[in-house]
Amino acid sequence: MTTILVVEDEESLRAPLVFNLQRDGYDVLEAEDGERALAAVAESMPDAILLDLMLPGISGTEVCRRIRQDSEVPIIMVTAKDDVVDRIVGLEIGADDYVTKPYSYRELLARIRAVMRRQERKPSEVEDDEDVLKVGPILVRVDRHEVEVHGELVHLPLREFELLELLIRNVNRVLTRTQIINLVWGPDYVGDTKTLDVHVKRLRSRIEEDAKRPKLLQTVRGLGYKMVDPDA
Ligand code: CA
């Protein structure tokens, strides 16, 4: 279960946020000031932290700085409208992102998911091997965001890259349309489901020899898509 620590001194802001996050299936820890936030981090390392900047006692920036001394946990700063300087400071001392009050819950959730996704992609410090994925003629260097097809560098826009990475990580497994949309666009995605087909089509034109008769990125009728390893 994903645990999110909400650091916010104003009860009227904290309570609905906690409610919404719990409703969406997150395990939520609450802290109303910096000291309690640091204690919560030390006790049970959360997966992400929403950190209000204006806190009584230890400031949000100081809390962020101290957490960063020994943790890479994703931190989203919550700032008031005109705290431009604090925002910059927040990012400089290691916050991953910030939202400005008043924010919508949706926006906040999207950012939490984005920073957590980025976090998952970060290479760990002990492992200096590059994250390289390979299927048939396709080679993906995840850390460098590079794709080669038959040894030629191919530029992919972000979503296509994410789609390709997802399919390759699940090579020879069928992914449903819903799974793909949830994982690449996020469960809050409300756009046209044709978006996925458009991206698949574009991706095929870059990786397949004949995009009309795909051998790698195959459609599984009535279900979704799968990446097939031609060498398997
Ligand atoms: Ca506050």
Compute the number of helices. Answer: 8
The shape is: elongated
Radius of gyration: 21 Å
The helix/strand class is: alpha/beta
Estimate percent helicity: 40-55%
Strand content: 15-25%
Query: How far is the first residue's CA from the last residue's CA?
Result: 34 Å
Overall strand count: 12
Low-confidence stretches: 124-128
The largest sheet has its strands arranged as 2-1-3-4-5
Give the averaged pLDDT, no decimals: 87
Taken in chain order, the helices and strands follow as: EHEHEHEHEHEEEEHEHHEE
Instruction: List the bound ligands.
Output: calcium ion
Largest sheet: 5 strands, parallel
Describe this protein's structure:
The chain has helices at residues 11-23, 34-43, 60-70, 84-92, 105-121, 158-169, 177-185, 194-207; strands at residues 3-7, 27-31, 48-52, 75-79, 97-100, 132-135, 138-141, 146-149, 152-154, 175-176, 217-220, 224-227. 41% of the residues lie in helices and 21% in strands. It has eight helices and twelve strands. Mean pLDDT is 87; it is low at 124-128. With 232 residues, the protein is of the alpha/beta class. Calcium ion (CA) binds next to loops.
List keywords for this structure.
232 residues, alpha/beta, five-stranded parallel β-sheet, four-stranded antiparallel β-sheet, 12 strands, 41% helix, binds calcium ion
Could you outline the blueprint of secondary structure elements for this entry?
Elements (H helix, E strand, L loop, with lengths): L2 E5 L3 H13 L3 E5 L2 H10 L4 E5 L7 H11 L4 E5 L4 H9 L4 E4 L4 H17 L10 E4 L2 E4 L4 E4 L2 E3 L3 H12 L5 E2 H9 L8 H14 L9 E4 L3 E4 L5
Parallel strand pairs: 1-2, 1-3, 3-4, 4-5
Antiparallel strand pairs: 6-7, 7-8, 8-9, 10-12, 11-12
Helix pairs in contact: 2-3, 6-7, 6-8
